[in-house]
Amino acid sequence: MAHNLRVARSHAGTACVFAVVKANAYGHGLSRARRALAAADGFAVLTLEEAANLRLMGVEQPILLLEGIFGADEIATCAELDLWPVLHHVTQLDWLQQQPPARPIQVFLKFDSGMHRLGFPLAEHAAIVARTKSLSGLAGMTLMTHFAQADEAAGVDWQLQPFLREMGGHGLPWSSANSAALLRYPESQGAWVRPGLMLYGASPFADVSAEQLGLRPAMTLQSEIISVQTLQSGEGVGYGQLFRAERAMRVGVVACGYADGYPRHALTGTPVLVNGRLSRTLGRVSMDMLCVDLSACADANVGSPVVLWGDGLPADAVAAAAGTSSYELLCALAARGPVMDTN
Predict the structure, then answer these.
(1) Which CATH number fits domain 2-200: 1.10.3720.10, 3.40.50.1820, 2.30.29.30, 3.20.20.10?
(2) Which residues, including other chains, have CB under 8 Å from residue 266's CB and lie 6 or more apart?
(3) pLDDT tens, residue by residue, 135-161
(4) Which of 31, 223, 256, 299 is deepest in the core (most CB within 10 A)?
(5) Is pLDDT at 286 greater than 70 in this prediction?
(6) Residue 46 above 60 pLDDT?
(7) What is the 3-state secondary structure (H, E, C) of the chain?
(8) 110 catalytic per annotation
(9) How many beta carbons lie within 10 A of that of residue 335, not counting itself?
(10) Spans of all domains in the chain
(11) Catalytically annotated residue among 110, 239, 258, 327
């Protein structure tokens, strides 16, 4: 993660970096991520609990609450812990007006530039900014938006340009860039950038690998073979017998399944590494086990290491074969799965 933060900084130029560590740092562990990303200018999380845990761990940098406050009762905690909430709905402004924080706090005003998920209508920016400025207990504000297609051919211009055009007259700092925009669109950087996925060594692009971007996997999900079966031609393996051997072959049974966070919908052919050699999964993934092809791994046996994703096997490649995204793979990792740091 530390290496990937350096990559993010190299693209960010003069912009400050919020390391996005929501969802237990994309499955990597909040405490582990806090240590690895200690050089970040700030951290971005979803919940007050995550923010409070970071403060207990000794984090002194700004902490951004990406969905802001969920009730007026959370305003006091923001003031106490010096948290920066994202304000995206008029109800949140009402709460702040009714219960001003005990000491001034920084806020981010989120505007909807086309994603149509969270954010004030862009057309109402003048009234929203003016009302926010009138609130007591605010130390300052940053304008914010989020991109829907930064990782696709459509890019960011269709959102960025209207956002900058409307916001330019306020003379306030702004933030818009996620991982994909940070890597591909330097004009989107603003005062703060918000890299997430790239910090964990996965690519936000379907057509560009993490290695090509200079990113390294921050975790390796590893297990081992616990049994070896020999199939004859026509015999199947696993629930539903979805895979049937075309010839006699050896099959390794690996102690990892969907209860560990490995995707159940991963079909035959999803890549794995057995003893460092590229192989594939066979048949249906079970709750606690999956099967792998040992045809090209003559020396593999009980106890042989199996890398499901990570060092030597990018999560992006596994996700693509399984018909999902590396976001889902990493975030779905179960607590019982053995994980080792790779940087």
Answers:
(1) 3.20.20.10
(2) 281, 285, 290, 318, 321, 322
(3) 999 999 999 999 999 999 999 999 999
(4) 256
(5) yes
(6) yes
(7) CHHHHHHHHHHHCCCEEEEECHHHHHCCCHHHHHHHCCCCCEEEECCHHHHHHHHHCCCCCCEEECCCCCCHHHHHHHHHHCEEEEECCHHHHHHHHHCCCCCCEEEEEEEECCCCCCCEEHHHHHHHHHHHHHCCCEEEEEEECCCCCCCCCCCCHHHHHHHHHHHHHHCCCEECCCHHHHHHCHHHCECEECCCHHHHCCCCCCCCCCCCCCCCCCEEEEEEEEEEEEECCCCEECHHHCEECCCCEEEEEECCCHHHCCCCCCCCCCEEEECCEEEEEECCCCCCCEEEECCCCCCCCCCCEEEEEECCECHHHHHHHHCCCHHHHHHCCCCCCCEEECC
(8) no
(9) 10
(10) 2-200, 219-341
(11) 239
Active site residue 22: yes
Q: Are 78 and 70 in contact (CB under 8 A)?
A: no
pLDDT confidence bin for 91, thresholds 50/70/90:
very high
Q: Fold for domain 219-341? A: Lyase, Ornithine Decarboxylase; Chain A, domain 1 (2.40.37)
Catalytic residue (choose from 22, 185, 200, 327): 22
**Is 219-341 in the same CATH topology as 2-200?**
no
State pLDDT tens for residues 301-342: 999 999 999 999 999 999 999 999 999 999 999 987 655 555
